[in-house]
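Sequence, please.
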């Protein structure tokens, strides 16, 4: 299908931040082990004979993973944070590298989890964590200690746009399958996605899930729901997808300039 062919996988650990995404997800699922788990994972790869010492870039990846886990906890607890607190997490030895580490961690938070890290007071470098694109859902299922799933919602909205505002269910699962998200299969970040797409986000008003008129046997399709129309715009979702795509060298997500300019005119 067109969406599946054109949608590249933003969640692959090779995208926004190579190993930190996988490391952060692992650490998040095993919180008792804390950052030591990350250190062990990071160090295990340096035991190969030809590599004697981790490079600075590899050390930074581990620090990015540590920071992502910390920011996810802040997001879950709806707490702000500040630079001093983040430096405690990554070690003050990395103060000079802080802008790079925060930049990579922020990109991970945005593209993998759908959470923006926003500086609210430059004087004391304080930050808040909010969902992307003005969406008001927090991406967390009530009573669940999983990870934010907002990015998957934005990608679903994007697939619907790429299918001319009405996406057959088969096309949706084909597109999401490109990034390892399958109905009935547990995903490390998104959990089992079928209920999310066909029930949770339908109840929240973000998508419509309806039978294709006259289909026998019954086929289903997805459309934007009223809450999606109220809280975000096609242009914002297209820009998000373009940014995801920008992180994927050689990816094939092609959004015509015409589609974006048409949306700008209609905005």
């Amino acid at each position: 299908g067109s969406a599946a062919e054109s949608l590249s996988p933003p969640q692959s650990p090779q995208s926004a931040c190579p190993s930190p995404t996988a490391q952060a997800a692992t650490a998040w699922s095993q919180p008792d082990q804390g950052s030591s788990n990350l250190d062990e994972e990071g160090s295990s790869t340096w035991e190969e004979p030809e590599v004697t010492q981790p490079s600075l870039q590899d050390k930074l990846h581990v620090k990015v993973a540590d920071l992502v886990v910390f920011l996810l906890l802040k997001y879950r607890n709806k707490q702000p944070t500040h630079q001093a607190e983040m430096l405690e997490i990554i070690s003050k030895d990395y103060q000079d590298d802080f802008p790079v580490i925060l930049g990579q961690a922020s990109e991970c938070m945005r593209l993998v989890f759908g959470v923006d890290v926003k500086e609210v007071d430059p004087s004391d470098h304080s930050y808040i964590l909010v969902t992307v694109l003005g969406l008001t859902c927090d991406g967390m299922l009530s009573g669940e200690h999983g990870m934010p799933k907002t990015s998957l919602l934005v990608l679903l909205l994007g697939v619907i746009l790429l299918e001319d505002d009405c996406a057959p269910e088969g096309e949706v699962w084909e597109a999401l399958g490109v990034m390892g998200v399958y109905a009935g299969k547990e995903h490390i970040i998104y959990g089992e996605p079928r209920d999310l797409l066909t029930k949770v986000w339908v109840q929240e008003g973000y998508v419509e899930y309806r039978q294709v008129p006259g289909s026998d046997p019954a086929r289903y399709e997805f459309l934007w729901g009223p809450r999606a129309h109220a809280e975000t715009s096609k242009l914002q979702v297209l820009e998000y997808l373009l940014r995801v795509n920008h992180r994927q060298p050689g990816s094939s997500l092609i959004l015509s300039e015409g589609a974006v300019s048409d949306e700008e005119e209609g905005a």
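The chain has twelve helices and six strands.
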